[in-house]
Design a protein that fits this description.
Layout: H1 2-7, H2 10-18, H3 22-28, H4 33-38, H5 42-48, H6 53-58, H7 69-76, E1 80-82, E2 87-91, E3 98-103, E4 108-109, E5 118-121, E6 131-134, E7 140-147, E8 155-170, E9 177-183, E10 186-192, H8 199-217, E11 224-226, E12 229-230, E13 236-245, E14 251-258, E15 266-277, H9 280-286
Parallel strand pairs: 10-11
Antiparallel strand pairs: 1-2, 2-3, 3-15, 4-7, 5-6, 6-15, 7-14, 8-13, 8-15, 9-10, 9-14, 12-13
């Protein structure tokens, strides 16, 4: 079999590999010497790069050092800042699907420019120049949007709010926050409690404010309840919803709101909203 493969022209093998995916190409490079050589070809890796990769590269905050398309692909598999540090771009390594993170500065945060309610600061744990920290407000409303034109087509995406809850947080989980992801006439609703990890504090608040909390919860639109989870980068995330990116160009609107309780709240730190591919079949395979 190996002798037959070695008889194929390298250009032919490169063309064949370009119709696979990055994972298959990495594996194929171990089959034989000709596959290894063909798998290094720019013909292959340019197919795995997004159509607008030259535009993305031109918008980088820090230029990348690369000499081949494969090197560029691998560089972009790590998050890179674009558009003056207001967005982060990434390719996932398995299939080359596109991910974006919109920084807090790229979001619409109600009263975000009021220093009495929100403060903007730089912290070493964030990839972005600034994050937004909620000082105190009775109206929590965070909105973002992205166009499917810059995402991978025919791909299901999840939308995640990237955040931290400070030790001084208060009032965030008195009433569920409402979450929404909307594309055209398709809407994905959800709700979440932005809970502090201090279980004793939660018990005390439940004891003293149980009746008021039950009344407030009735104001919230019913939806799938979702929970915070920890990320490898030290932040926490909550899934706002999901959508399917078709070949049509559509605007995706996403939001997290808590505007019905009217209680003061603070201590929420927002890094941004991440839009990344979902691979449920892979989760099943890994079980």
């Amino acid at each position: 079999m190996e002798g037959f493969i070695d008889m194929l022209p390298e250009e032919c093998v490169s063309t064949i590999l370009s119709f696979t995916c990055p994972t298959d190409t990495f594996r194929s490079s171990m089959v034989s010497s000709i596959f290894h050589s063909a798998a290094e070809s720019d013909v292959v890796w340019e197919r795995f790069l997004p159509d607008d990769y030259k535009d993305v590269v031109s918008r980088l905050v820090t230029p990348l050092a690369f000499t081949t398309k494969k090197e560029l692909f691998l560089c972009l598999c790590n998050p890179v800042l674009i558009d003056g540090g207001r967005k982060s771009f990434k390719l996932e390594k398995l299939f080359g699907k596109i991910s974006y993170m919109l920084s807090a500065r790229e979001l619409s945060i109600t009263w975000g420019n009021d220093p009495m309610q929100w403060s903007w600061k730089s912290i070493p744990q964030s990839r972005f120049p600034e994050v937004a920290e909620l000082r105190t407000t009775c109206w929590l409303e965070i909105r973002g949007k992205i166009n499917t034109q810059i995402l991978s087509p025919m791909t299901r995406y999840g939308v995640y709010l990237i955040m931290k809850i400070s030790n001084r947080a208060y009032g965030l989980d008195s009433i569920p926050s409402e979450m929404l992801v909307e594309v055209g006439n398709k809407v994905c609703n959800g709700m979440t409690h932005l809970r502090h990890e201090d279980g004793k504090k939660q018990q005390m608040e439940c004891l003293f404010y149980r009746n008021r909390t039950e009344v407030l919860r009735k104001r919230v639109i019913e939806g799938t309840e979702r929970f915070l989870s920890e990320r490898e980068d030290g932040w926490m995330e909550i899934e706002l919803g999901e959508f399917f990116s078709s070949e049509a160009y559509e605007e995706v609107k996403m939001s997290l709101m808590e505007v019905k309780g009217y209680q003061l709240k603070g201590g929420l730190i927002i890094e941004g909203i991440e839009v990344r591919p979902i691979y449920r079949f892979m989760k099943e395979c890994l079980r």
